[in-house]
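Task 17 of the worksheet. Students: predict the tertiary structure of the chain below and write it out as C-alpha cells. Keep your answer in the requested format; marks are given for formatting as well as content.
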Amino acid sequence: MSLSVTQCSAADPLQTVIVPQLLMVSGLGWRDTYWGLIIPQLSGCAPAALLLREHVRAIPAVLSAGSSTPSCNPESGESG
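Model answer:
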C-alpha cells in the first residue's frame, strides 16, 4: 500500500480529509494509538498559525501602544 499526503485547502470540508487520514494512519500501523490521534491533526495547525500571525501583525501600532499605559505597567513603579 502506498501512502501519500493529501493536499487540501481551508475551503475543503472536513469529510474529504477523514478517509485519506484513516488510510494513512492504518498504513503506518498507528490505529488505536496516540500517534494516530495527534499526528494527522498537526497538518491543520500550520495554516491556522500563519493566519493568526498575519492577523496580529495587521493590528496598527497605535492600538498596541494604547494597551501599555504607565499606570497599568507593574514595572513602572507607579501606583496608579
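Marker's comment: The mean pLDDT is 73. Helices lie at 15-28, 34-42, 45-57, 61-66.
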